Recover the amino acids of this structure.
């Protein structure tokens, strides 16, 4: 539970391990929730997630030096977790600025919207139970009613001779889900969605790690005088993300998931990024939002102006090695490793690249790179050109 106002400004200056815990306000009762607190419950109908999966493939030896294999995989994820905001504001009904909402002059307005534009779905129920309006604000429910789909077709070609080993693979894939998060992803409270919006048509789309095409080429090449080259090339097509407004479009009281209105040119929103009034003019309240994760490119400042840049991944690594032998027992192995050989910029776009969000109110990050490629719980993988040298002596 979130108990607003208990610690006040003391919490912002608190230094863990250095300062004493702030004093609890006088007459505070830990057994009573503060009015307006955020609640969290588990769905009583929650069940264990599971997947339905099937695959079909073949492998064939073309000759003594070549082989090919190909596999098709289909995966359906069921009963996957999703946080639902089951007590959203009902501004589509209570905020006259929304199309079709009740006007304050309507005789039913006072009973339907006892807190005006701030009325939440369960406010009338709390009032009827004698608990008072705004007994709880947002209530996040952990549910297991989400689902996702993943389909892939992977083909691998292998070639081998005395001094050459070559592998090539191509993967055609499609990852989709409600909400645009990966299979069984714990997306957390930060992107809780109102139940009425969870299965809206524009909420189903590619996940933030949907990579339609991936190509990997690798090999080991023996050269004269005992030198050996081991290159690996990787290409991944752009992964998608969403362009978010940063203000409440659908009237549920949250601003985390609201995307640009359908039909709004992202370049037009980029031109007025950070300007709330201009963004609101482009994206009127109650509009139909653009599909989830519908962008696969952003903008990069090249020194004089912004240019559009793809969200693709391209990387070439190379190892050069040489072994020296001294008699029958002693060997010296020297190697040089070159990572991102061509110093390719591989970037992640968005205000929150891990969740696939890019907020138009934030002028510094909207549709712009915020980290190297591969953000998430682990380190980025899109590092600049790096070299390392090593030696190993065995006896």
């Amino acid at each position: 539970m979130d108990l607003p106002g208990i610690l006040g400004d003391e919490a912002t200056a608190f230094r863990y391990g250095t300062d004493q815990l702030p004093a609890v306000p006088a007459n505070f009762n830990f057994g009573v929730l503060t009015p307006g607190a955020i609640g969290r419950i588990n769905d009583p109908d929650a069940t264990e997630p599971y997947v339905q999966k099937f695959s079909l493939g073949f492998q064939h030896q073309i000759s003594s030096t070549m082989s090919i294999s190909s596999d098709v995989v289909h995966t359906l994820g069921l009963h996957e977790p999703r946080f639902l905001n089951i007590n959203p504001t009902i501004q589509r009904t209570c905020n006259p600025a929304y199309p079709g909402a009740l006007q304050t002059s309507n005789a039913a307005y006072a009973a339907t919207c006892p807190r005006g534009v701030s009325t939440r779905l369960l406010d009338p129920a709390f009032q009827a139970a004698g608990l008072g309006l705004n007994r709880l604000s947002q209530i996040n429910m952990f549910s297991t009613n989400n689902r996702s789909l993943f389909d892939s077709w992977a083909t691998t070609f292998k070639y081998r001779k005395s001094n050459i080993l070559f592998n090539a693979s191509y993967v055609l894939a499609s990852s989709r889900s409600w909400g645009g998060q990966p299979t069984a992803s714990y997306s957390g409270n930060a992107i809780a969605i109102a139940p009425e919006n969870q299965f809206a048509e524009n909420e189903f789309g590619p996940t933030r790690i949907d990579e339609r095409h991936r190509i990997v080429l690798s090999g080991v090449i023996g050269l004269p005088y005992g030198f050996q080259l081991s290159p690996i090339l990787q290409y991944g097509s752009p992964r998608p993300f969403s362009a978010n407004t940063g203000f409440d479009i659908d009237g549920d009281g949250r601003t985390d998931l609201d995307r640009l209105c359908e039909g709004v040119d992202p370049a037009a929103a980029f031109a007025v990024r950070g300007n709330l009034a201009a963004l609101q003019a482009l994206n009127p309240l109650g509009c139909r939002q653009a599909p989830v994760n519908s962008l696969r490119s952003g903008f990069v400042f090249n020194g004089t102006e912004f240019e559009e840049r793809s969200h693709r991944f391209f990387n070439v690594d190379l190892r050069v090695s040489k072994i020296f032998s001294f008699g029958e027992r002693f060997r010296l192995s020297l190697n040089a490793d070159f990572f991102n050989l061509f110093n390719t910029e591989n970037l992640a776009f968005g205000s929150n690249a891990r969740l696939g969000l890019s907020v138009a109110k934030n002028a510094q990050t909207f549709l712009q790179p915020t980290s190297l490629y591969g953000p998430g719980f682990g380190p980025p993988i899109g590092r600049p050109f790096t070299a390392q040298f090593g030696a190993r002596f065995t006896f």
